[in-house]
Structure formats: structure tokens, C-alpha cells
């Protein structure tokens, strides 16, 4: 499978801040590639470098097998992107916006093509409504229609569900799946809404504080062998001390007030429970979590609290 995006040792530094710190990743043809990170993790900075809106401090980017720096015009013609909220002319209709952006892009399209594009994103019935009457979700879908007008091979969406209600989020999710499954588009979508990415992405990258934490498939990242166990007790200091001296010491991650976090194989949870009871732990709750969100939080929390149990 050929690589659409190939990023090697990419960095971006602003004065003393490393917004992106030596990350590498590959997006293959046909991927819905989730780009995950908390707000400020470096997602938007990376995307802006992919679109040549800002220059990297170090590293290289290849798109469609070509160096982005030396083949900028040819490469960008094959990309459609929506960066945060789309810039739209709110006193024009959806149809007029789409037609205007098509002309600005040098794309010759028929009225039928414009109408079909609006139908694809679920806006055909509002084609002649002014954009100022649209919800944020409708504006996002119109932004995606504009990004698709030149039939790009690669679509880049930066936080496309930000500020949307549940129905708007579902609409964008279904649109992304449609573009992938029925039109064969390769899609890179950044988000901090982990559950949404888990529903649509086949591969993903997790970054934190500008650094790559993990890359892989959902199946690889949501691994039963790496189940996070949230343990809530009334005697946390006693339980932590016992855990540190027990066979579970390597599973121990951190403690916040009455909550203790451990990582282990899901099959070990009954054994842990029995040992805790025997050791005198006053258990209020014990919850194994094997979702992308729990895995993401364990990685980023660990990255922030690496010294919790080392002193």
C-alpha cells in the first residue's frame, strides 16, 4: 500500500517552545487516519506544516511521493482541507459560496455538479439559503463541500466537530465514512474527541506536548493486555504501599486522592481483586477500562506524571 503522507523527524519551534518535537508518521492510501491529542498538543501546527501555511524548523514532508518543499503547487492541488472553522461568506447562499470558491480555485463545474456536491454533504435542501442562517454543523459540511470541489485525493480536517451538538457530530462522522468507503478518499482528521476517532479511524497517531506517543491501528492501541484499571479505595496510602511491595508493583501507574490507576492484562483483574480484599483494601469501586479514551489518558497522564512513584 502506497504512502500518501510521509513525515520524518518533523519539528517546529517558536522561541523556547517546541510546538512539534521530532515526530514521524505515515498515512497510507485509503486510510482514515486519526490524529489525536489534547488541545495544544501540536496537531494544528503539524497540519499547517502539511499545508505549507508555516515552515518546519526541521524534518521533511513527502506527499504523494513528492517532496512538499520542492513540489508545493503540484502537491497542494491534490489536497482539500478544512482548518478549524471554514471561512464562508455568510450573506451568500450555500450554492453561491460553493460556486465562488470553485471559480477561485480555477475549477470549471456545472450547476448540476454544484448541486450534487451540496447533496453529498446533506445541504441540497438549503442550497439557496444564506449561510448566516446555518448552524455550525451545516457550516462545517459546507466547508467540506468546498474542500471537495476539485476532487482531491487527500482530505485534511482539523477538529471538524469542534463546537457541534451530538447530531452535528454524527453528521460529520457519517460524511467522513461515506467519503472513505464510497469515494475512496484518504482522510487525515485531527481531534481531541477520542470516542469519535475510535468509531471511524483505521489507523491513528497520538501526540502529547508536540511529541509522538504512539502510532498504530485501533486494535493495536486498544489491547486487552494494556487494560487500565481504575481503583477507588478509602485507604489509598495503605493500598499504594501494599501494591508497591507486591507482585502488582509493575502495574502501578499513579494515584490521585482516593483513585489508583493500574495497567495490566484484563484476565488478571479477578486475581488483583482477590489480593486487594485479602490485603485489607477498602474498595469503593474497581473498573477496568479498555477503550481508546482510557488508553490515551493513560499515555498522556503518564507523560505528565512520570515521577509519581519514583521518589
Automatic annotation (TrEMBL):
For this chain, one GO molecular function annotation is:
ATP binding
InterPro entries documented for this protein = AAA+_ATPase (IPR003593), ABC_transporter-like_ATP-bd (IPR003439), ABC_transporter-like_CS (IPR017871), P-loop_NTPase (IPR027417)
Q: Does the keyword Nucleotide-binding apply?
A: yes
Q: Which UniProt keywords apply?
A: ATP-binding, Nucleotide-binding, Transport
Cross-referenced Pfam families:
ABC_tran
Superkingdom field:
Bacteria
The ABC transporter domain covers 5-234
The similarity annotation says:
Belongs to the ABC transporter superfamily.
Q: What is this protein called?
A: Bacitracin ABC transporter ATP-binding protein
Amino acid at each position: 500500500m502506497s504512502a500518501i503522507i510521509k513525515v520524518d523527524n518533523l519539528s517546529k519551534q517558536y522561541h523556547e517552545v517546541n510546538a512539534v518535537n521530532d515526530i514521524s508518521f505515515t498515512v497510507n492510501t485509503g486510510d482514515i487516519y486519526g490524529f489525536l491529542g489534547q488541545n495544544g498538543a501540536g496537531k494544528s501546527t503539524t497540519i499547517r506544516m502539511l499545508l505549507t501555511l508555516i515552515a518546519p524548523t526541521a524534518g521533511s514532508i513527502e506527499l504523494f511521493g513528492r517532496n512538499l518543499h520542492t513540489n508545493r503547487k503540484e502537491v497542494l492541488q491534490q489536497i482539500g482541507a478544512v482548518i478549524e472553522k471554514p471561512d464562508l461568506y455568510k450573506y451568500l447562499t450555500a450554492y453561491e459560496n460553493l460556486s465562488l470558491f470553485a471559480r477561485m480555485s480555477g475549477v470549471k463545474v456545472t450547476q448540476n455538479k454544484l448541486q450534487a456536491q451540496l447533496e453529498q454533504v446533506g445541504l441540497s435542501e438549503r442550497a439557496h439559503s444564506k449561510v448566516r442562517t446555518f448552524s455550525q454543523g451545516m457550516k462545517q459540511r459546507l466547508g467540506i463541500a468546498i474542500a471537495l470541489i476539485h476532487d482531491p485525493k487527500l482530505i485534511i480536517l482539523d477538529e471538524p466537530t469542534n463546537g457541534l451538538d451530538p447530531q452535528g457530530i454524527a453528521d460529520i462522522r457519517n460524511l467522513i465514512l461515506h467519503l472513505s468507503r464510497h469515494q475512496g478518499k484518504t482522510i487525515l482528521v485531527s481531534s481531541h474527541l477520542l470516542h469519535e476517532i475510535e468509531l471511524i479511524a483505521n489507523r491513528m497517531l497520538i501526540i502529547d506536548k508536540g511529541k509522538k506517543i504512539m502510532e498504530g491501528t485501533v486494535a493495536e492501541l486498544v489491547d486487552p493486555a494494556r487494560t487500565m484499571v481504575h481503583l477507588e479505595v478509602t485507604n489509598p496510602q495503605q493500598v499504594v504501599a501494599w501494591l508497591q511491595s507486591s507482585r502488582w508493583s509493575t502495574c502501578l501507574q499513579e494515584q490521585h486522592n482516593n483513585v489508583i490507576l493500574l495497567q495490566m492484562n484484563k484476565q488478571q483483574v479477578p486475581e488483583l481483586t482477590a489480593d486487594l480484599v485479602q490485603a485489607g483494601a477498602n474498595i469503593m469501586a474497581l473498573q477496568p477500562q479498555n477503550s481508546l479514551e482510557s488508553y490515551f489518558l493513560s499515555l498522556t497522564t503518564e507523560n505528565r506524571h512520570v515521577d509519581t512513584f519514583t521518589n
